[in-house]
Write the structure tokens for this entry.
Amino acid sequence: MKELGRCVRKSVGGETWPQTGLAYLAAITLRSGHEARLIDAMAEGLTQDQTEGRIADWNPDWIIAGTTTPTFKKDAAYLKGLKERHGYTIAFTGTHVTALPVESLLEANADFVFMGEAELTLERILDRPREEWTQVPGMCVNIDGEAVKGPPTELVDDLDYLPYPARHLTPYEVYQMPFSHGEPFATVIPSRGCPYPCTFCRAGTVWGVNIRTRSVDNLMGELFDLRDNLGINFFAFMTDTFTLRPSWVKQVME
């Protein structure tokens, strides 16, 4: 997407980060009996036209894009153009739209945005008519050009309920970190939530203040799945409070 001026390069350290959040949403979609595909245009170095071509080849009903504050204006302009040219239903997820759902929806002329954790919200709207979306927790919906917010987001109490991210839909071979020595790596989310009110951090905004931890068996099952089915032997735990419960950490390490 270089034509839009969006940053698509690796970091100075050489990292290419996986889109684990979108892979979770793809897994929810598949488990609900629907089709899903995942395009990581940044990781693959796709141009604007190449990305649009891939989308057009599949002609999806919805496009859900992950976005951040530094990239939102470019992301919004790109998806807004796709909607105008092809009539796609477009949506956003991520920290930026969680903090500014109304402003984000209107700027992008999006059909809806997810506020906070999106898995349960997505699961509830997949087979529900659009006129009922405003009743679903965590939704901000475009109703005739007006942003209408639904009830507050419901967090996933039992993280073991979530399927493993659909990494097979991603270009997982290209995700690398310096410590992975040229081999692919994955990001794994063992817990969510943080009780500390740091003003500079988005953790509480998205994940809430109550810590929710996956069972050791569920977490280890994902690590074995990475190794046995995708050949991924390097991973990074993405959590704000990994060591807050020493007894749980000890079980994982053992």
